[in-house]
Write a structure and sequence with these properties.
Elements lengths: L5 E4 L4 E4 L7 E3 L5 H4 L3 E8 L7 E7 L6 E9 L4 E7 L10 E5 L14 E8 L4 E6 L2 E8 L15 E4 L11 E2 L3 E8 L5 H9 L3
Parallel strand pairs: 5-13
Antiparallel strand pairs: 1-2, 2-14, 3-12, 4-9, 4-14, 5-6, 5-12, 6-7, 7-8, 9-10, 10-11
């Protein structure tokens, strides 16, 4: 419904450059993703130099403390990048949220070198495991949500989707993306390693 970001040369054709403070691509919904995604994959191409602040690549917006049922934040240094993917289900049972983190000893190098890289975050409900793929290669160790199983988003509170921004830009630390993005994809399934590699090698 709104795209204030500028065009840039993407990995294939045109991408977007997150160069406007507190701005992002806004969608009125993520279609049926939250309803159907017991497993999921979030995949996109990123080109980013070392950030000077905490930045958000996307947010599935909702009515909670973060104003998002799912988001990816990135920060840190070139040598020690920090990536955190947050999932908040807010189910009636009172179960809590989950932070999948790639930090410290598990940090993935090379994400802030100002070159195009393909990222895929794959949650498999059958194993309660999250895998992060960079340029088609899975990074170990994987991240467990022990005995969790299927994702159960609180769909009554989800109210939109944003690429290149947070759910609550009024918060001083929830900054919008300043790098470039291309080929952003949401899947309501856990892609296989082969399928993720196809996205990388075919630049899609």
């Amino acid at each position: 419904s709104d795209n204030p970001l500028s065009q840039t040369e993407g990995i294939t054709g045109k991408g977007v450059k997150g160069d406007v403070a507190k701005k992002f691509i806004a969608y009125s919904s993520a279609n049926d993703f939250a309803v159907t995604a017991s497993s999921f994959t979030v995949a996109f191409w990123s080109k980013h130099d070392t950030p000077t602040q905490t930045e958000f690549a996307f947010a599935l917006t909702s009515n909670n403390w973060a104003k998002a049922s799912m988001f990816l934040l990135m920060e840190g240094t070139k040598e020690r990048p920090v990536m955190k993917l947050y999932v908040d289900e807010q189910p009636a049972t009172g179960a809590s949220d989950k932070w999948f983190e790639w930090t410290n000893a598990n940090a993935v190098p090379g994400v802030f070198d100002n070159q195009w890289h393909h990222f895929a975050f794959v949650y498999d409900a059958t194993t309660s495991t999250m895998l992060f793929y960079k340029d088609g290669i899975a990074n170990q160790p994987n991240s467990q949500w022990t005995n969790h199983g299927s994702i159960k988003f609180n769909t009554s509170k989800i109210n939109g989707f944003r690429i290149g921004g947070s759910g609550n830009p009024a918060e001083g630390w929830m900054n919008s993306w300043t790098g470039s993005l291309d080929q952003f994809r949401l899947y309501a399934i856990a892609l296989t390693a082969e399928e993720v590699n196809i996205l990388f090698t075919e630049k899609i």
